Structures
1.
Amino acid sequence: MASGKIYGSGREARLAIRSGEHRGQTAGIAPGFVQGNLAILPKALADDFFRFCQFNPKPCPLIGASEPGDPRIPALAEDLDIRTDLPLYRVWRDGKLVEEVPDLKAVWRDDLVAFLIGCSFSFEEALVEDGIDLRHISAGTNVPMYRTNIDTVPAGPFHGPLVVSMRPLKPADAIRAVQITSRFPAVHGAPVHLGKPELLGIKDIAKPDYGDPVEVKADELPVFWACGVTPQSVIATVKPDFCITHAPGHMLVTDLKNSRLAIL
Amino acid sequence: MASGKIYGSGREARLAIRSGEHRGQTAGIAPGFVQGNLAILPKALADDFFRFCQFNPKPCPLIGASEPGDPRIPALAEDLDIRTDLPLYRVWRDGKLVEEVPDLKAVWRDDLVAFLIGCSFSFEEALVEDGIDLRHISAGTNVPMYRTNIDTVPAGPFHGPLVVSMRPLKPADAIRAVQITSRFPAVHGAPVHLGKPELLGIKDIAKPDYGDPVEVKADELPVFWACGVTPQSVIATVKPDFCITHAPGHMLVTDLKNSRLAIL
C-alpha cells in the first residue's frame, strides 16, 4: 500500500505531506511510527465523543486530542498542525461527504476539536516483524472489515455497532497474535473474537462491509480485532452538521514510536 | 475431583499424605500451591530425560529434579521426601505396570533420579479465578487428552508424539485464556492450538486417548494445551527396565505458590 518514498521519521513524513511532496496513502511511509485515525467535531459534540471513546476503548483507543480551535497536539508531535499534516481529508455536512481536500485551511473553525484514534498499522507491524504473514498486506489490498451484532456503549448521540477487521491466521499464529497484540492496548489490543464469524452476526465472510475480501484457507481461523472504522461509522449515524475525517488510508503520522505503545 | 479435606498449605497437605491421613487424589487439596507430575528414572537414563525436557519445554516444563539417590528436592519444599509425600505411586518394570504403592520405601534405589514436571492445575486455577468455566471441572471428570500427529524433539531413547489436553471455550474466553496461560510457562504456558482438531491428527474429539470426553458446544472452540502426560507416554514407549510415576491424579503438592509461577 506504500506508494513510493519511505521516510526515516514521523516528522520527515509530516513535512513531506505538509509541503505537498507526499500526497498518497500513508501505510508504510514511516516504519516504526504510530499513525492515527482522525475525527474532527464541533465542541458541542466533543464532550459526548470523548465519553464515547472512554466507554469503548477497544474500537476507539484515543491517542490524542486537541483543545477547541487549536490545531496543535504536542503530545503526538511537537510541530504538528492538524490542518496541514495529513495528505487528504474528508469534509462532511449533515452526514454527507461534501468534499475531499488536501488541507483544512479554508474550513478550520475556532470551535473544532480534533481526535486521534490508534490504528491497526502499529500492531500489524509487530505481527509482520514476528514473521506472521498478513494476507491483505501480501495482496496489497485493504483489510476486510465487518459491522457486527455487538453494540458499542452509547454516549449522548453516539451509538451503533462495533466494526471489526479480520485477518486469517493459522491456529498457532492466531495464538501468537493474541500474545503480541495484547501488548498494544492503545491500538485495539487483543482480538475480540476468533473462529466463529456467525456469532458476530457476519453472514458471509467473503463480503466485508468495508475494505476488500481475503481468502480464509481450510487450515486458518478468521481472527477479528475491534476496528478504528467503528467511530467513523458511529459519526456517520449521528450525521453531525459539520465534521472532518481523514480520507481512508491517509492517516496522521505521529512522532510516537510503535514500540513505545507496547505495555510489556 | 477433590476428595474431602482442604489444607492451608502445600506442607500441611504433604504431612497429611505422609502420615496416611490423605490417600486420595490431590486436585484442589491445597488451593494456590503448585502440584507436579512425577517421573523417577535410573541415572543411566536421567541425562537423556533431562535433555528431553529441555528440548520440549511446553509438554515437559521441569520444575525440579533430585540428585541421584537423594529423595529430597529442597527447591520445591524444604522437608520434601519424594518417597513418602505422594498419595499413590506406580512402579513400572520393562514398560509394564507391576504395582501401585502408597510409598517408595521398599523400592527406592541409590541410582534413582526424580523429575517433577509442572501440571495444568496451576493454570486452571488462574482461569477459574478469572471467571472462566472449565467443563471437565464443572463435570467432575478428568480433562480429555489426545495423542497428536506432532512429534516431540527426541533425546537419546526418548521420543514420541505430543499429547495435548483440551478445554472447550467460547471465543472471547479462548482469547482471555491465551493471555492468562501465557503468563505461566512453567505449567505448559499458552495453548499450542485451537479450533481445528483435524490439523493435530485428532479424528474424533469425542474419543480422547486419555481422560474423559467433554462436549464442545456450537458456540465454543476446542482449545489445546501441551500436556504433562506427554513424558509418561514417551517413557512408556522407551520401556525402561525400572521406572516410577505418580498414579494418575495423585500428584506432588509443593510449597511453591501458583501465583509465583506467573512471569508477569
2.
Amino acid sequence: MQETSETLLMADQARIHALQNELQAAGLDAFFITNLTEIRWLTGFSGSNASVLVRKDLAWLFTDFRYQEQVKSEVKNAIPIIANDGFITELKSGKYRLDGQVGFQSDKITVSFLEKLKSDLPDVDFVPKPAFFENLMMVKTPDEIEKMQKAVEISDKVFEKILPLISPDVTELDIAAEISYWNKKFGAEKDSFDPIVASGPRGAMPHAKPSNQKLLPNQLIVIDMGCYYQGYASDQTRTVGLGKISSEAKKIYNLVLQAHLLGIESAKAGMSGKILDEIVRNFLTKTGYGSYFGHSLGHGVGLEVHEQPHVSRRSVAPMPAGSVITIEPGIYLPEQFGVRIEDMVLLSESGATPFQKSAKQLIEV
Amino acid sequence: MQETSETLLMADQARIHALQNELQAAGLDAFFITNLTEIRWLTGFSGSNASVLVRKDLAWLFTDFRYQEQVKSEVKNAIPIIANDGFITELKSGKYRLDGQVGFQSDKITVSFLEKLKSDLPDVDFVPKPAFFENLMMVKTPDEIEKMQKAVEISDKVFEKILPLISPDVTELDIAAEISYWNKKFGAEKDSFDPIVASGPRGAMPHAKPSNQKLLPNQLIVIDMGCYYQGYASDQTRTVGLGKISSEAKKIYNLVLQAHLLGIESAKAGMSGKILDEIVRNFLTKTGYGSYFGHSLGHGVGLEVHEQPHVSRRSVAPMPAGSVITIEPGIYLPEQFGVRIEDMVLLSESGATPFQKSAKQLIEV
C-alpha cells in the first residue's frame, strides 16, 4: 500500500537524519556502521552482510551479489552498492569521497578489522565511538512496539500449544522442538534464542540446554523461550509443574512470583536498572534466598534479545520512557530445582506494562 | 564410561599442550581466549559466557554463576573460576599471576574491549594474534569427523522427512518450521543456520529468507539447511522441482550438478581454495552462465558452519588433509529461479569424500 510505504520511508529518513544530527554534534564528517542490527534499524536491510557509510549529505549501503534483489526491496534511505570484492576494495576505488573524522563502532569492530581499515584508507581519521546508537535505539517507536507485541502474542500462543504436551513421556528436546516449530508456524522468522527447557535439577542451571532427558515427574520445569517477528524479539519464562510438586518447591515458586510482581510494580521510566534490580534483590535477600538469585534482574529487548538498558547492579543510567525490559528474577537450588518467571514490560513515566498474557500462577499439568 | 572420559581428557590435554607449544614458538607468556567457539574446541565448555587464560603451566576458565554446575561436568583441562563481576575484575584481584607478553584474538576482540583490558591490566603487554587457532582447528580429529558425520546423517534424514511435505498448499515458512522441528527430533541441538526455503523467483536470491509465500507449482525450490550435533555443524543444499519443470530449468539444474560433481572430483588436500573455485567457475563460464554464479564455491565447516578453509578467489593457502569444506556452485537467474547443490566433503591427499547421501538427480515431486 502506497501510504504504508511512504510512512515507512519517512521513519527511515528520520533515523538517518537523527544520526546525521549526532554526527554534527560529535564533530564527525561521517559514520561507518558495520553491525547488522544497527544497519537493520537504520536502513531496514535484513541480509547477513552489509556495511553502511553515513555522510552528512547521504548514505551508502554496501553488500554483495547475494543480496542484489533483496536490497532493492528493503533499502529506501541509502544508496545500495553491490561490492563483491568487499566494501573496503570498493571504497579504495576512489569513487567515493571519504576523508576527515569518521566515527566507527569501537564496541563492535575487531582490532584486526580496524587495523585493515586504517592501512587501506590512510586519509581517514577513525574516531572510536562505542555505543553510539544505544540512546537512539533504546526508545521504541509505536511501529516497533507493535512488532514486539506481535512477537509476544506468538510466544503466548506457543506456550499454550506446548502446555498440553508436557508429560513424563517426552524429553526436554521434544518440547524445545515444538517451541521452534510453533514459533515459525505462527509467523515468527525464528527463535530469538535457543529455547531452554530444563526439568528438575537441570532447572537449577539458569542456562541449561535442552537434553534427551525425559521430563521428571513431580518436578518443576523452567521454560524460557522467544521468537523474532519482523526483526523484533520476544523473551519470556514460565516455570510449570509436572505432577505433584513438593511444598518447598511451591514456596520457592511463590517467592519468585512475588519478586517478579514486585519488579513490575516498581519499574518505571527514569529509574536506573541498578535501583530496580536492588528492590527485587533486597526482597529475595530478606526471604533468605538472595544468594540463589545469581543473575541480573533483566535486560532490554528490541532488535536484539539482549540490548540496552540492562537491569543489573552496574546499570546506573536512568531507563528512558519507551524502552522495553525484561523482569526475570529466579531462585536456583543446586541439584534440586530452579524457578524463573519473566515478562517483558514497556516503561513509561507512570509505570511498567507487561506484554505477556500467559498465566503466572503455578500450573501443574 | 571410564574409558571414554579418559580418552576425552587426553584429547583435551593434547589441545592445551598444542596451544602451549604455539605460545612457546611465538615467544608469548600466555594467551587470552575470548571467543566461545575456540573455547569450546579447547576446553569442551559450551556455555554462552567464558574467557580462558592459558599460561605455559596451566589454564583458567572464567564464567559466571549460571554455569557453575555445567562447568564442572564439561571442563576437565582448565581450572574453572566463577567470576560474577566479570573476569577482568577477577584478574585485577591480584590472585592470578599475569604479566609479560599475552597474545589475544585480535580478529575477535573489539577495539573497546582491548582498550578496557589495557587500562585495567597495565602490567600486561597485549600482542595481537589474528587467526591463531585456525591452523590448529582446521584439521579434524576422528572424533570430530564422527560428530560431523552424525550431523549430516540427521540432515539427510530431515531432507527425506520434508520431501513428501512439498506441495502447492504449504508455504516456505511451513517447510522451514519442519526442518527446525525434525533437526531437534532427530537429536540435533539446533539449526546450524536459518533454513533457506526459496521457491521460484525467490530462489534467485541466494540467501532468501523463508516467506509466507506458498510453494509455486512447476517451479524449482532451493532448500539449504543444516544442524549442530554435539557442537559440530552440517550444511547441505538441494534444489527440487514441484510439478512440471521447464526444460530451461532442467538444463540449468544439470549444469549446476555437473559443476558440483566436477568440484568433488577435483578437490583434494594440498590444493588451494582459489584453484578449486577456479576449476568450477571456469566450467560455468564456458557454459555462458559464469556471471550468474556470484558467490564463492564453498567454505570450511566444523564447530562453526562457516570457518577456514574458505574456497574462494581469495583463498591462496593449500587446504590441509583432514579439513572439511562445502562444494556449492549455483546459478541464479534474477526474477526467474535459482539452482544450488551443496555437499560437505572431507579432504585427503587422494581426493574428497562427500558426507551427504541425499540424491542429487533432480527430484520432481
3.
Amino acid sequence: MKKHNYSAGPCILPQEVFEKSAQAILNFNDSGLSLLEISHRSKDFVAVMDQARALVLELLGLEGKGYQALFLAGGASLEFVMIPYNLMKVDGKAAYLDTGTWAAGAIKEAKLFGETVVVGSSKDDNYNHIPTGYSIPTDADYFHCTSNNTIFGTQMKTFPTTEVPVVCDMSSDIFSRVLDFSQFDLIYAGAQKNMGPAGTTLVVVKESILGKSGRDIPSMLDYSKHIKAESMYNTPPVFPVYTSLLTLQWLKNLGGIAAIEKQNNAKANLLYSEIDRNPLFKGAAAVADRSAMNATFLLNDEAHAPIFDEMWKAAGISGLPGHRSVGGYRASMYNALPLESVQVLVDVMKALETKV
Amino acid sequence: MKKHNYSAGPCILPQEVFEKSAQAILNFNDSGLSLLEISHRSKDFVAVMDQARALVLELLGLEGKGYQALFLAGGASLEFVMIPYNLMKVDGKAAYLDTGTWAAGAIKEAKLFGETVVVGSSKDDNYNHIPTGYSIPTDADYFHCTSNNTIFGTQMKTFPTTEVPVVCDMSSDIFSRVLDFSQFDLIYAGAQKNMGPAGTTLVVVKESILGKSGRDIPSMLDYSKHIKAESMYNTPPVFPVYTSLLTLQWLKNLGGIAAIEKQNNAKANLLYSEIDRNPLFKGAAAVADRSAMNATFLLNDEAHAPIFDEMWKAAGISGLPGHRSVGGYRASMYNALPLESVQVLVDVMKALETKV
C-alpha cells in the first residue's frame, strides 16, 4: 500500500534519493567499495563535499557574495551554542525573537554567554502567531529568528530590516521558498527536513561577520576553523552529507527553489482550503502566519478523533498526530511530499463529514 | 576484483552490515518506509537506540556498573571540548598523556578551560612509542589518554592505576581487545573504525563522575542532559546509529570482543612477522607498543616504493599509504578486515623480494 508520510522530521525524501543512497552503500561510484568504508579524504568524497557546498550557495543565490556553506554535525541545537560563541562579543548582547520551542531553546543557550534580549514573543498565546511591532537594539551583536516553527505551524513571511547581522534558523523550511537569502548573515538548518537525513547541519555564513567576538572558541565550535578546513576539520558525517547532495541535486533538476515553491504553495493551499471549508476542523495558527511546511489543525469536536484517526491510517497516512504542545494534527508537507499525498488527506477529511 | 580495504577510517565494515543498512534505506523493518524518513521518536527507532546503548554496555562488560552509553554527534573532536566542560572544575586541572596528533588535539582544547598538565609525551620521538615513568597528580580532576594512535601505529597495552577519573579516547581500537573497561570512568570513540560509519560518537560514562565541574555547561555539551534524554536530547544521527547497532550485533554474534581479539592478534602477528622478517621493510613504532589496529612500516630503500606501490594496487589493496607525519605505509586492520586481506598484503611483500 502506498504510504503518505507526514512525519515532521526526519521526513520523506525523494524516492530516487533513497535508491541512490542505498546503492552507494553497496558500491560507491562503481569503486567496488561502500560509501561507508572510504576515507573522507579520498578524491571521491572530497568531490562530494565540494559539490554539496557549492550547490547550496547556487540554490540560495549566494554565489560570489562572501558566503561559505558548511556541513557540520550536532544538529541545530549545537548551533544554538556556536552562534553566541562566534558572534556575541564578550560583554556584548544579542537580540532574539521568541516564536516557539526551538527559538526558546536558542535563547536559553545564548543566555549562558551574555545579555540576551527577547525583542518579541508569542509564548503567551502558545506561539500561535509571529510577533510584530518589535524593535531590534542597534547595538546588538546580532538578531536571531526562526523562520518556520515546526511544532506550532507558523512561518515568518517577512524578515525585519536591521543593520545588525541577521541569524536565522531555517531548519524546517530551507530550500522551500524563494527569499532574498542575502538579507541573512548566517543561516543554519538541521538537514532532516528538506535537505537530507538526520546527522548533518547546514551552516551558511557571511565570512565578514566572523572573528569579532573576542572569545576563545573551542576549535570544533569555531566557524572560521571549519571554513579554513573546507568543512573537513574532522571526519564529517559522510553518509548524511552524501545523501544531502543527492537531495540538493534532485531539487536543482526539478528547477530549484522557485519550482518547488510552486508545488509547496499548491499543497498548502489545497490543505488549508479544506481546513477552512470543512466545518469539522479548524486551523491552530493565525491565518496570516500559517506555515506552508507544517499545517496544524484541530477537530472542533474531539469526539470525532477515533473515527478520523482510523480513517487516515486506513488511507496509508502516517505521522499526522500533532505535537503535544498543540494537540490535534500536524501535516508536514516538506519538499518531497507529493501533492497526491495531500489530496489523499483532504479526501479523508471530506469523507469524515459523511461519517459523523 | 576482490578489494582489500586498509583505510584508516572511515574503514571496512562487515559486508552484512552494508547489505542490511542499504536494505533499511529502501524499507525499514518491513514498514514500507525508509529508515531515513521515520521519526527518531518512532517506536522502531527508539528501540534501535535502546538496543545499541544496551549492547555497548554488554559487549564492554559494564552492565549494572553505573555506566551510561550515549550516541552523540560531532566526532571525538567535540569530546575534546565536552570532557573539560563536564569534568574540569573551575580553577581545577587535568592531566593528559601526549601520545600523538589526536592526544595533542585534546590537550589544545583542554587548555582553553584551565590548567592542563602534560604528564608524559613522546612528541620528540615523533610519537613512535608510548611514554612511561610518568606520574599523575592526585589533585587532577581527571587523567586523559588515547589508547591507540592511528597515525603513529602505537597502542597502550596497560593503563596507569590512579585514583583520579580516567578518561580514554578509544576511537581507533574500541571493541578490538579484551580490557577491564571498568578501569575507565569515561570512554569515547568516533564510530568510524570498529563501530560503524562516520557520523556518530560513542561515549560511555560513569554517572558518578558528572555534575562536579561547577561550570554552566551548554545543553548540547552536557553529558547529564544527554543521559536524562536517553541519548535523544535532539535528533540523533539516525543512520549512523542504526548502522552501528548492526555492527555491534555482528560482533556479538561472532562471540564478542574475546573472539574478535583472537582474529585481530592473528592478523597483527601475520603482518608484523613479515615486517620483521623481510629485509626490505622496517616497522615505524617501538616493538613493545605496536598497535594491533594500525601497523606503520617503511621501506628500507625508498627507491623500491614505485614497484611496491604498483604491486599492492594490482593485488586489489587500497588505503595503504602512510600518514604524512610518518610516511611509508600504514595497514589498518580493524575488526572487519579479514585475515585473507592481510595474507594478500604479506604475499605482495614477499613477492617484492623476488623483484628487486
